[in-house]
Design goal:
Layout lengths: L1 E3 H6 L3 E4 L3 E5 L10 E7 L6 E10 L6 E5 L8 E5 L9 E3 L3 E7 L8 E9 L4 H4 L2 E4 L3 E4 L3 E2 L5 E2 L12 E4 L4 E4 L3 E2 L5 E2 L4 E6 L19 E3 L6 E5 L11 E5 L4 E4 L17 E5 L2 E5 L2 E2 L2 E2 L3 E5 L4 E5 L2 E2 L18 E2 L2 E5 L10 E6 L2 E2 L8 E6 L6 E5 L13 E5 L4 E11 L4 E12 L4 E4 L14 E3 L2 E5 L2 E5 L2 E4 L2 E3 L5 E5 L4 E3 L4 E2 L11 E5 L3 E8 L3 E9 L4 E2 L13 E2 L17
Parallel strand pairs: 1-3, 2-4, 19-48, 30-36
Antiparallel strand pairs: 3-10, 4-9, 5-8, 5-10, 6-7, 6-9, 11-12, 13-14, 15-16, 17-18, 19-51, 20-21, 21-22, 22-23, 24-25, 25-28, 26-27, 28-29, 31-34, 32-33, 33-35, 35-36, 37-38, 38-39, 39-40, 41-44, 42-43, 43-46, 44-45, 46-47, 49-50, 50-51, 52-53
């Protein structure tokens, strides 16, 4: 029987389903406006698994949602919050014996809605797939060599290609560690230029354990130099604010939880939508959303000493600068902003550098218009300056990306959510800005030619970006493409900062298709590979994706190319200017 929303409304807006299988849907045509339809799927046995498989999903992106909880109410853990026009991943599973499904619509326009099949299964299906024992009639305890909640996944499938030197089995970690040039769960996918691959998969280790890096979005990822080690802090996973700091060793795709030297010492609470940079082995974390609202906290973490420290820098003004009037001496509370390390070529090696903070939302719900310059690394204690750009535009945006480009001594910003005066609301943008540091001036970048529809990104925010030589590479975000809202964009774009033009990137796929996402973090690894950590696609994600950049386009005329010149510009290590931060923005 198909339990459509129209039927659910007749039962008071919610219905309890006790059958072991069936279908749920909003019904024929578009779903109704101003409606909350609830389906509660209840198993006869406690802790039985309930699996929901989607066939279609189309709702107004960002306004109408399909919420799915692992329990019998909205107080249960939230498994996913789906919106937009897409088909979610293969399945979603609840393990509590109940699944609570809520379709919510607002007063605006509606779409075709969703259709999904559900199935109730024994908590230990097929006797734990023959590779484990059912513990307390509730969960599988897997035998050696097997993992997952159903003990159906081999720890090291195919021996990780060890016989062909493709990888090695790390049984203690429950996975294969692939040799250079190989990827995938079994190390049987080759790493190809111009193709996505999964460097580290999202994990379900099974009973009694949890992944080191739990799925999340709105976190920050930092690195220095070749970025063989990434440092990830904070984030949000639908029901949890994360306060953990993790280190990811890229060559072996290994996560490690980083514990402070003194576990009892003060440390930052869980947060997301903060900003962070890394300088000379020290992490700087500023602002974000914490329990209770926005914060103005500034924390540092010394990665060598493993010590967190809180700071309250003094507000100062340099000669000729005009401070924004009416603000207190404390750093402002802000979220959705960017922080970029600049000064002394941006390499963090000099006597003093500057962290430049742009954009974000403020505690009063408005847009934060100031440029905040935080002096770090010099002989004096931390100090900060607050100013408006000297002429030109003022950045009113949040969820934009930022990267420092040394040849122009400018911070390059793209996209974000900006205020819309006509509607007194906000909307996504695809504007590319340059903040010229010497002049403290924000200007819109002028494109030298009209790009193709495929080359130029559509409007978006909470995407991520990283700089490769002269190319700004932008990935994902919550976007609108061809007048269709794409809540989780999979698009990859590049902007040539020398030629001021968007370039087409035809990204292939190695292994499983790469789903779009927003709220991920991105960094540049070894000057040739974009790494994407976590994010959100209706559920929080815990994987690490990689994309090795390809030859991109013909040489421009001023470098000796011509219409008939077949020469190609690669993303060369030689073009990675010494003044650029290895990390990205997101």
């Amino acid at each position: 029987f198909l339990w459509a929303c129209s039927w659910v409304v007749r039962f008071g807006g919610r219905v309890l389903l006790a059958e072991t299988s069936g279908f749920i849907s909003d019904g024929n045509g578009d779903y109704p406006q101003r409606q909350d339809c609830v389906w509660i799927i209840a198993a006869a046995t406690a802790n039985a698994t309930i699996t929901l498989r989607f066939e279609e999903l189309a709702t107004e992106c960002g306004f109408d949602y399909l919420f799915i909880f692992d329990g019998d109410s909205t107080q249960a853990p939230l498994l996913g919050a789906f919106s937009g026009e897409s088909t979610p991943f293969d399945r979603l599973t609840a393990y509590s014996g109940h699944m609570f499904v809520l379709l919510h619509s607002d007063p605006a326009y509606t779409l075709s809605g969703f259709r999904a099949a559900y199935e109730v299964e024994d908590p230990c299906p097929a006797n734990c797939s023959g590779h484990g024992a059912c513990r307390d009639g509730a969960r599988c305890a897997c035998e050696a060599g097997w993992k997952g909640r159903e003990c159906a996944t081999p720890v090291c499938p195919g021996g990780c290609g060890a016989g062909s030197a493709q990888g090695a089995c790390a049984e203690a970690e429950g996975r294969c560690v692939c040799a250079e040039g190989w990827s995938g769960a079994a190390c049987n996918d080759t790493v190809r230029t111009n193709a996505w691959y999964t460097l580290r998969a999202d994990e379900d280790p099974g009973l009694g354990s949890a992944p080191v890096f739990s799925a999340r979005a709105g976190h920050t990822t930092m690195c220095e130099g070749s970025c063989d080690e990434l440092w990830t802090f904070g984030g949000y996973s639908l029901s949890t604010l994360h306060a953990d700091l993790l280190r990811f060793h890229v060559p072996t795709a290994t996560w490690t939880l980083v514990q402070p030297h003194d576990a009892a010492a003060p440390r930052p609470s869980g947060r997301y939508a903060h900003a962070a940079v890394m300088r000379a082995g020290v992490l700087f974390v500023y602002g974000g959303l914490v329990e209770g609202g926005l914060t103005n906290e500034l924390w540092t973490f010394d990665t060598a000493a493993r010590v967190w420290a809180s700071h309250e820098p003094a507000l100062v003004a340099e000669a000729g600068e005009v401070l924004v009037p009416g603000y207190a001496a404390a750093l402002p509370a802000v979220a959705g902003h960017t922080a970029t390390l600049v000064g002394n070529g941006g390499d963090g090696e000099g006597d003093g550098d500057t962290i430049v903070v742009l954009g974000g939302i403020s505690a009063d719900g408005g847009f934060q218009p100031r440029t905040i310059k935080l002096a770090v690394g010099g002989p004096a204690p931390f100090a900060w300056r607050s100013l408006l750009p000297a002429g030109g535009a003022v950045l009113h945006a949040f969820g934009q990306s930022a990267a420092y480009y040394a040849p122009l001594d400018a911070i390059v910003l793209f996209g974000g959510m900006v205020p819309t005066l006509a509607t007194q609301g906000s909307s996504r943008r695809r504007t590319l800005w340059r903040y010229h540091l010497a002049a403290d001036r924000l200007v819109e970048a002028e494109e030298t030619e009209t790009p193709s529809a495929a080359a130029r990104p559509s409007v978006r925010f909470f995407h991520s970006a990283a700089l490769f030589g002269r190319y700004l590479v932008v990935y994902g975000g919550s976007a609108q493409e061809a007048n269709v809202d794409v809540c989780y964009s999979p698009a990859l774009h590049a902007f040539d900062l020398h030629c001021n033009r968007w370039l087409t990137v035809e990204a292939g796929v190695s292994g499983q298709p790469v789903r779009g996402r927003f709220g991920a973090s991105s960094v540049r690894w070894r000057n040739e590979t974009l790494l994407v950590v976590g994010g959100f696609d209706g559920r929080a994600l815990g994987d690490v994706l990689a994309y090795t950049l390809p030859p991109l386009r013909k040489l421009p005329d001023w470098l000796g190319g011509g219409d008939d010149d077949p020469a190609m510009v690669r993303w060369p290590a030689a073009e990675a200017h010494a003044g650029e931060d290895g990390g990205g923005g997101g």
